[in-house]
Structure formats: structure tokens, C-alpha cells
Amino acid sequence: MSDLLLPPEHRYAKMIEQRQNEDGSELSILNLGPTHPATHGIFQNILLMDGERILDGEGTVGYIHRAFEKIAENRPFYQITPLTDRMNYCSAPINNMGWWMTLEKALDIEVPKRVQYLRVIVMELARIADHIICNSVLGVDTGALTGFLYVFQYREKIYEIYEEICGARLTTNMGRIGGFERDWSPAAFKKIDDFLNEFPDIWKEFENLLARNRIFMDRTIDVGPISAEKAMSYGFTGPNLRAAGIDYDVRVMQPYSSYEDFEFNVPVGKSGDTYDRFCVRNAEVWESLSIIKQALAKLPEGPFHANVPDYYLPPKEEVYHNMEALIYHFKIVMGEIPVPKTEVYHPVEGGNGELGFYLITDGSRTPYRLHFRRPCFIYYQAFNDMVRGQMLSDAIATLSSLNVIAGELDA
Amino acid sequence: MSKSTDIKIVDAPPGVEGSGFFATKLDTVVGMARANSLWPLPFATSCCGIEFMATMASHYDVARFGSERMSFSPRQADMLLVMGTIAKKMAPILRQVYEQMAEPRWVIAVGACASSGGIFDTYSVLQGIDKVIPVDVYVPGCPPRPEQILDGIMTLQDIVRNESVRRRSSPEYQELMASYNIT
Amino acid sequence: MALETSVIEDKLTGKFGDKVTGFIQIKDILSFEVHADAMNDVMRFLKEDELLRFNFLTDVCGVHYPDNEVNRQFATVYHMHNWMDNVRIRFKSFLNGEKPEIDTATNLFLSANWQERETYDFYGIIFKGHPQLKRILNMDEMVSFPMRKEFPLEDGGRTDKDDRFFGRKPDNVNNN
């Protein structure tokens, strides 16, 4: 069968033959993906199996390569946010805010404190939504569908908050250079309050369902482990790195958007296995809730955007009645106001790790080069290393706990 | 909790009824049965797939439309839901999945990318899945809300309900398949 | 900041002389240029020196400058990060436009593997000594390097756009 899949000069074909000659046992090739239901995303892995144990794997990615970086070179700065949404679509607002902050850094714009706090709130909500998906789907992959169905109702509540803020659910395209397009409505704050009141009980219940569940622990402890040194060399960041025991968090190392004003812990794991990744994400949800509470309590009054008429769209009423506002509107929408020649790298702590924007401008209406440092892309290359010697079902749990988002992986 | 009396059953098709018998056309019976037990094959690649997750989870519950069982094997699926961008690298795989499905089979293109390539008019993205497989229903949106996905499924149910049992062997259908080089 | 940028600059120029040039602080990151031959040694020095300790390779990417002179038409950009002192650094190596080649960094950081493959896929920059330098995101059959400035963004097969409104060449439509 294997010779149908692989050319005879492939190293697996040689390994199979060698094994055949050694002790007569037969190795097999398993093609996992790209549309396997358990891979939540489209990656292909050709696995060399000894029975149910994985000897080696070879990954293929790029099945949803959409050429974000090429598009970005052809679009005015405002039109790039929709691309960032579609990168890590589980936590789109973090990407949006990261992009605005990159531009603000390039333009030296100081944004008001209120905007920074509002951004923190929406980014932490996005982080919660991201971790809800990852942890509940990890439950599904280890056989517990109930938790998924239960907590997904609360992800819907987060989406309702997004809708109240910007009008969209998933691909939010939220914000502007210097702030938000409108101030948050009282209904949005009401929904956030409701969420903060209801969600902790639900999350506690979900935690109880899995965290000390014998079956879940047996399925995840010592599954897909990675050492701290190796994780660092593989470029891990975010919860997956922290599960391996390194407390690197961009929010602490390089605080952006006033993260330095809030008290929070950076949860770390020890062994870098699937269970630790679950626990780190779980604990991060609690920290995020605490950050949102602090930000709401300390939320200052003030404008919801910086005073930068060159880059911030004027209000619609004025566009209709005021010639100057109309001109600004036109120039901004058409991307006629250039960004000065510079180079910036801005990292934010995305749902999966350090999401970096490396922007080179040449003074024209579009970026000269925009490179996204996509955490998934960088750490997914460790996958085959992590599952070597493990069972096939462990590979599925490992993949699930890494939370690889295909859109982000393939750019 | 819903009471058992709240459960709505599909109405019987029009026909002739008398004591102990009910007569109707085979077409309508088959159409009704098919339309209410469409097993979906979720071919989720990106953002729309996340909205489909919401559609099948507790809040929107696609199971209410007879699509309780996600069929991850193309052999046992009736309705291929293509959700998300299909890159050119992915196109042959999509086509293979479609070819593996047994007749009768229907396809819904969910979202702008699957329908037309969407905002990704780039060198690497297939500009609409109808370039490689025939599509029955297009659902607009980027991504569509779960309600829109449900609306797409209900539209397909209408199509399925009214489809003749002979359609799949008609010359027009053969011609359509031949235009996609699917045998 | 515990590690001053002047210290970094002095240490690097002391060790590599004119192979490292153009030190400039752009926004919050110290940037400089490295001669392509010395890239691997500079990276190793940055990583292993007891004072510098740039332990993390954040990012590798390519840039195309078609308007530059032929020896500076491509650049590979490396971002490194010292987690102990929390200092970031960026350096570029400019490469020849006709024969873009540079040493791989996979011997120092495992994470460079796919990032270099991506750079190769986009720009056709050859990383010498890379264990498996082949396309990663695009199809193996592809012949162009799509991120080079001369290649168009749009797919030729899209028929619903009228080129009069988009300023495109007629051969982009109706070609099937």
C-alpha cells in the first residue's frame, strides 16, 4: 500500500524496507489530513507508524494560503484590518488592535487612556473566546462533547458584546487609527457586566468537568511534551511556551496599551505536555477576567479616539455638511494620506503567542512590506517532534492543545 | 425543556387519503425523506468553519433541521458544506471529496470565499468552488452569521424536496457533470 | 534597560569590524546591517556571547528592493530578542538580485526552518545548508516567487471583474 502513496526513493520507503529485512515486521504509512475531522484545520501529516505508535511524521501546510502579505502591499493602511481579522479568526480583536498599535507606533500617535483601557477589555475578551474554543475542543477530542456544547453558549455572549461594540461577530474589523469608531454604548457595558457575572460559574463548572477528571488526565498527562529549551529554540510563545515553564508574556515584557496598570499573574506549567497547556489556558481565562474587572473599575472618562484628523475619519454628520470633513474623509478612505518612511516591529500577546507586525513604509499610500509574525506558523513545525513515539490518538490531543489556527498558520 | 407535544413533525405531502390508505407521488415522499435527513459533510477550512461550529453547537443547533449527524466520511454524506477559502493547493482535494460522495449529493458554498474567492483575489486562492465542482446553494457573508448558514440549509431543503428522483439520470445532469469532467 | 545599545554596537564592531554597519535606532529597536557572509557568525555571537545573550529568534523574513543596485536587491531581516535584559534587535543582510544566497540559521535555532522555507517560497532566496529547502505555502509546481514585486497580486482567472474599472490588463480576464 505504501508504495502507492510515496515514491520509492522517499526515506520512509527505505525505512519500511529496512525494518522488513530486520525482523520481518511491517511498518505502515498513515495519511492524516488535510481534511481529517480531528485536525480542525487543514494540515496534512504523513505518519510512519509502527502499529499504533508514530515513528516519524512529515507535515505539509499551505492548504489555505491566501497571500495576506502580498495583498497588504497593495492596499491602503485602512484596508488591512480586514486581513488581520481573518488571520486568527478565533481572537480577531487582538489582531485588529495589534495592527492599529503598529500604525500608531509608526506615526507616533499617543492614544488616550480610555482608548487603551477599552482596548485591553476587548483584547482580553478575545483571549477568553480563543481559550474557550481551544480548551473545549480539546475536551471534544478526548471524548467529552458536553463541555463544548455548554461553554459555547458563553462564547456567543462574547460575540454579542463584539456586535454591540462594532456590529460584527467573528471578523470584527474593529477600531480606527487612534481609537474606536464610536464610543461603547451603555448596552455594551451592560453585556460585559452580565458576562462577568455569569461566566465565572460556568467556567468553574467546565474546569471541574475536566481538570481532575481521571479519563481526561490519562489522555493528556505526558502527552506531546516539549522541554523548555526545545520550545524556546522552536520559537514557541504564548500559552504553549508558558506550559513548558518559561514565563515569557509580551504583556509583561513589553507592555502595550497600558497593560502595566493592571495586576495579573502569568500562569506557567512545568512539563509542557497537553495537560499543562490545558491548565495554563484555563488559568489565563481567570487572569483575563480579573484584568477586565480592573479595567472596568479604573476606566477613565475621556475621548474614545486620539485627535488625529489626518488619520481618523471625521464623524458622518460632518462629512455630509462640512466641506473640510468631506475632503478628509475622501483622502483617508482613498488612502491619500501617506505614512512617513519608517520601519516598526510591534508585538502583541495574541491568543497563541507573540503576534508581531513588521511594517516597512516608503512614504506611499500602501505598506512597502508587511510581515506578520504568526505564532502558529512558527510553533507548528515542532509538532512532528512532539508526537514522535506517541500513540496516534495522543497526536490528535496534542494538535488540539497546540491550538493551531489554519488561517494564521498559512497566512 | 420542551414538552413532547411541542415537537413539530413534517406535514404529509398532498395526496389522496381514505380509510386505511394514503396515496401520493413517489417523488414527493422521497423528496420529503431526503430533505429532512441531510447528513452534512463539513469541509471547514477557515473563518466560516468557526461560524459553523457555532451553528452546530447548542445555541443554533443545526440538528433541528435533520442534520444531527456530522458525517466526516464523504461516502455517507448527502450535503457538502464548503466553508472558507479554498486555496488552489486545496482544490484537487475538494474535488476528490466531492467525487467520493455517493449520489444524490448536494453542495452548499458557505461564505464569500467559497462562493467567489471573496476578498482574496490572489494568486493562491481558487476564485469560487464552482470552478471545480457544481454548487446548489450559495450563502453570502464574510463570514455568514449562523442564521444565514441555517437559511442556506433550509433553501437546500427546498431544492431537495422538489427534486425529481429521475434528475440524476437526466441528460442535463450528465451534461453538467461532464462539464466538470466528473464521471 | 540593562543592556545599552552602545554596548551592543561596540561589541559587534569590535568583533566583526566592517562586516556590521549602519547602526541606527529606529523607534524602539536597534537596527543594523550585516554582510551576508558573516550573518551566521553574527547570529551565533549574539546568541552565545555572555553579555549579549540574544536567546530567541523572533522572526525571519525577506524583503525585495527591485530599485536598488543589483547587490542589494533582496534583504533577509532577522529579529532577535534577549529575554533576560528584554532587548530586541533587528539586522538585515542584503543579497544579490540575481543570485540571492545566504547561510541558513537552522543550525542555531530550530524555528528558522520553516521561516526560511517561507522566505524561499516567497522570494526565492536560497538558504545554504538548509535541511529541506522547498516550498511550504505554495504548490511545489509553482515556478514564480510571488512576493517579488514584479509578480501581480491578482489571480488571472477571475471573470467577474471588469478591467476598465480596475486598471488591469485585458489578458487577466476571459482567458479560459
UniProtKB/TrEMBL annotation, chain A:
Q: Which InterPro entries match?
A: NADH_Q_OxRdtase_suD, NADH_UbQ_OxRdtase_49kDa_CS, NDH1_su_D/H, NiFe-Hase_large
Principal localization reads membrane
List residues of the NADH-quinone oxidoreductase subunit D domain: 141-410
Q: EC number(s) per UniProt?
A: 7.1.1.-
Topology relative to the membrane, per the entry? Answer: Peripheral membrane protein
Entry coiled-coil feature ranges: none
Keywords attached to this Swiss-Prot or TrEMBL record, sorted alphabetically, are: Cell membrane, Membrane, NAD, Oxidoreductase, Quinone, Translocase, Transport
Among the entry's GO cellular component annotations, what is one? plasma membrane
Q: Name one GO molecular function term.
A: NAD binding
Cell membrane as a keyword?
A: yes
Q: Which PROSITE patterns match?
A: COMPLEX1_49K (PS00535)
Localization in the cell: Cell membrane
Reaction it catalyzes: a quinone + NADH + 5 H(+)(in) = a quinol + NAD(+) + 4 H(+)(out)
How this chain assembles, per its entry, is: NDH-1 is composed of 14 different subunits. Subunits NuoB, C, D, E, F, and G constitute the peripheral sector of the complex.
HAMAP family attached to this UniProt entry: NDH1_NuoD
Family, as annotated: Belongs to the complex I 49 kDa subunit family.
Functionally, this protein is described as follows: NDH-1 shuttles electrons from NADH, via FMN and iron-sulfur (Fe-S) centers, to quinones in the respiratory chain. The immediate electron acceptor for the enzyme in this species is believed to be a menaquinone. Couples the redox reaction to proton translocation (for every two electrons transferred, four hydrogen ions are translocated across the cytoplasmic membrane), and thus conserves the redox energy in a proton gradient.
Q: What is this protein called?
A: NADH-quinone oxidoreductase subunit D
The organism's taxonomy opens as: Bacteria, Pseudomonadati, Bacteroidota, Flavobacteriia, Flavobacteriales
The UniProt gene name for this protein comes to nuoD
UniProtKB/TrEMBL annotation, chain B:
Q: How does it sit in the membrane?
A: Peripheral membrane protein
One family name in Pfam for this protein: Oxidored_q6
The record's keywords, sorted A to Z, are: 4Fe-4S, Cell membrane, Iron, Iron-sulfur, Membrane, Metal-binding, NAD, Oxidoreductase, Quinone, Translocase, Transport
> Which EC number(s) are documented for this chain?
7.1.1.-
Keyword Iron-sulfur attributed: yes
State the Gene3D superfamilies in the record: 3.40.50.12280
Q: Which reactions is this enzyme annotated as catalysing?
A: a quinone + NADH + 5 H(+)(in) = a quinol + NAD(+) + 4 H(+)(out)
What is written in the cofactor note of this entry? Answer: Binds 1 [4Fe-4S] cluster.
Q: Which InterPro entries match?
A: NADH_UbQ_OxRdtase-like_20kDa, NADH_UQ_OxRdtase_20Kd_su
Q: What class of enzyme is it?
A: translocase
What does the entry list as the binding residues for [4Fe-4S] cluster? 47-48, 113, 142
**Record GO terms (molecular function):** 4 iron, 4 sulfur cluster binding; iron ion binding; NADH dehydrogenase (quinone) (non-electrogenic) activity; NADH dehydrogenase (ubiquinone) activity; quinone binding
The cofactors required by this protein are: [4Fe-4S] cluster
Which PROSITE patterns would you find in this protein's record?
COMPLEX1_20K
User: Where does the record place it?
Assistant: Cell membrane
Complexes and interactors = NDH-1 is composed of 14 different subunits. Subunits NuoB, C, D, E, F, and G constitute the peripheral sector of the complex.
Which HAMAP family does its entry note?
NDH1_NuoB (MF_01356)
Q: What does the function comment of this entry state?
A: NDH-1 shuttles electrons from NADH, via FMN and iron-sulfur (Fe-S) centers, to quinones in the respiratory chain. The immediate electron acceptor for the enzyme in this species is believed to be a menaquinone. Couples the redox reaction to proton translocation (for every two electrons transferred, four hydrogen ions are translocated across the cytoplasmic membrane), and thus conserves the redox energy in a proton gradient.
The record's comment on protein family reads: Belongs to the complex I 20 kDa subunit family.
- Name under which the protein is recorded: NADH-quinone oxidoreductase subunit B
TrEMBL record, chain C:
Catalysed reactions, as listed in the record:
a quinone + NADH + 5 H(+)(in) = a quinol + NAD(+) + 4 H(+)(out)
| Localization of this protein | Cell membrane
Q: Where is the region Disordered? A: 154-176
Query: Known EC number(s)?
Result: 7.1.1.-
Molecular function (GO) terms for this protein are: NADH dehydrogenase (quinone) (non-electrogenic) activity; NADH dehydrogenase (ubiquinone) activity; quinone binding
Which keywords belong to this entry?
Answer: Cell membrane, Membrane, NAD, Quinone, Translocase, Transport
Tell me where it mainly resides.
membrane
GO CC, sorted alphabetically, is: plasma membrane
Q: Which SUPFAM superfamilies match?
A: Nqo5-like (SSF143243)
Instruction: Enumerate the spans annotated as NADH:ubiquinone oxidoreductase 30kDa subunit domain.
Output: 33-154
EC class (word): translocase
**Cross-referenced Gene3D superfamilies:** NADH:ubiquinone oxidoreductase, 30kDa subunit
Bilayer topology: Peripheral membrane protein
Q: Subunit arrangement? A: NDH-1 is composed of 14 different subunits. Subunits NuoB, C, D, E, F, and G constitute the peripheral sector of the complex.
Q: What does this protein do?
A: NDH-1 shuttles electrons from NADH, via FMN and iron-sulfur (Fe-S) centers, to quinones in the respiratory chain. The immediate electron acceptor for the enzyme in this species is believed to be a menaquinone. Couples the redox reaction to proton translocation (for every two electrons transferred, four hydrogen ions are translocated across the cytoplasmic membrane), and thus conserves the redox energy in a proton gradient.
The record, for NCBIfam families, names: NuoC_fam (TIGR01961)
Family of the protein in this entry: Belongs to the complex I 30 kDa subunit family.
Q: What is this protein called?
A: NADH-quinone oxidoreductase subunit C
Task: Give the taxonomic lineage as stored in the record.
Answer: Bacteria, Pseudomonadati, Bacteroidota, Flavobacteriia, Flavobacteriales
Per UniProt, what is the name of the gene that codes for the protein in this document? nuoC
